[in-house]
Every structure is written in C-alpha cells, then in structure tokens.
Write a structure and sequence with these properties.
Blueprint: H1 4-19, H2 23-35, H3 37-59, H4 62-68, H5 70-93, H6 98-102, H7 111-123, H8 126-135, H9 147-180, H10 184-207
Helix pairs in contact: 1-9, 2-3, 2-9, 2-10, 3-7, 3-8, 3-9, 4-5, 4-8, 5-10
C-alpha cells in the first residue's frame, strides 16, 4: 500500500490546497449565510461525498477522460456552474422568507435535498476532478500493486481534511448569520448576499479554467 512518507506528503499538499477558499468553501459559506448551521453542515457532508465520488471516478479511469477531453471538461464545468447560478438565484428570490423560518414558518429545506445539492456541486466541480486526475497518480506506488485501492485511500485522506476545514468555515459563517437574524432586514440582506455569492461562484467557474 501507500508508504507513510507518501501519505504525509499528499496530506500536506491537500491541506495547502484545501485551506485556501475555493468553490467548496464559497458554496458552504453561501449556504450557511442563507440557511444556517444545519444546512451548512449537511452541505459539507454532501459536498464531501460528491468529491469522493470524483475520486472513485478518477480511480477507475474516468478522470483521465475528463483531463484529456476539452469537450467533456467544458461540459462538466458549465453544468456545475449553471447549477450554482440556479441555486444562487433561488436563494436571492427566497431571501424574504428567511426570517419566517427562524420563527417556525416559511418553506422547509429537507435534509436530503440539501445533501443532494451539496453532492451535486461536489461531484460536478471540474477543478476537483482535474486535481485528483493530476495529483493522485503521482503519489501511487505502482510497484506495490493495488493501484485503485491506493488512490481511494489518498482520496479519503483528502476528503477527511476537506470535511474538517469546510465544517469550520460553515460554522463560522453560521455564527455570523445568527447576529444578522436579529433583524429581518439584515437577514434578508445576508440571504441575498449568500445567493449572490453562489451566482458569482458559478460565473467564475464558467469563465475560468483551460481554454483548449
């Protein structure tokens, strides 16, 4: 299996990548501001499961296809970006209902739906797939065999670090949201900001990345 030195080196590289706010962090923060702590943590879990699904895809060879095909890469990127924009627009339109939800009213957001939305964003993040496709193979010791198992283990380490980091971001953002909740107007503003954050993130993903 993977040596301790390789595991530690990969964990260090993963940590440096994860602690810098990226698409996952911005999405979780947007959800925390719009819907609170519970939704943020469920989103983190869904996002982590989605990212690990990407690890599995890379381990069985799908990642290589995405890396080599500009059409597949662009399609996946645009689908993920469009979904983020959709969620952002929805959050902006429903910002006035946030205060009602604090008092037991307003539309309920089911845990399964929140989990699925987090999963969809995690699995459709092209930057994550490309990172796994480019980095995971470099830390695999092919002489030891069990290449797929090694990649799954490395991906698990990455996602454990991401789970912890994203949870901290979500909890911090949710705490700030509690202060805004004391005023309906402030809460509506923060709900709109969370939605705009997701829209901006979607636009950024759609307009960045490789051009080939």
């Amino acid at each position: 299996m993977v040596s301790t030195d390789r595991l530690l080196a990969f964990a260090a590289m993963s940590f440096l990548l994860i602690v810098i706010p990226g698409p996952s962090v911005l999405f979780v923060v947007g959800r925390a501001l719009a819907q609170g702590k519970r939704a943020a943590l469920i989103t983190v879990l869904g996002n982590t499961l989605g990212a690990y699904a990407a690890v599995v895809a890379v381990a069985v060879g799908v990642g290589a296809i995405v890396e080599r095909s500009a059409i597949v890469f662009t399609t996946l990127k645009l689908v993920g970006a469009a979904y983020l924009v959709y969620l952002g627009v929805k959050a902006v339109r429903q910002r006035g209902a946030l205060h009602a939800s604090f008092n037991g009213g307003g539309p309920a957001h089911g845990g399964l739906r929140t989990l699925w939305e987090g999963f969809a964003v995690g699995v459709a993040n092209p930057k994550t797939i490309v990172f796994f496709a480019a980095v995971l193979p470099q830390f695999v010791d092919r002489a030891q065999g069990h290449v797929v198992a090694q990649m799954l283990l490395l991906g698990l380490i990455f996602n454990i670090i991401a789970l912890a980091s994203d949870s901290v971001w979500g909890l911090v953002a949710a705490t700030a949201r509690d202060w805004f909740a004391r005023s309906p107007r402030r809460l509506a503003l923060v709900g709109g900001f969370g939605g705009l954050t997701m829209i901006g993130l979607g636009v950024t993903i759609a307009t960045t990345g490789r051009k080939d």
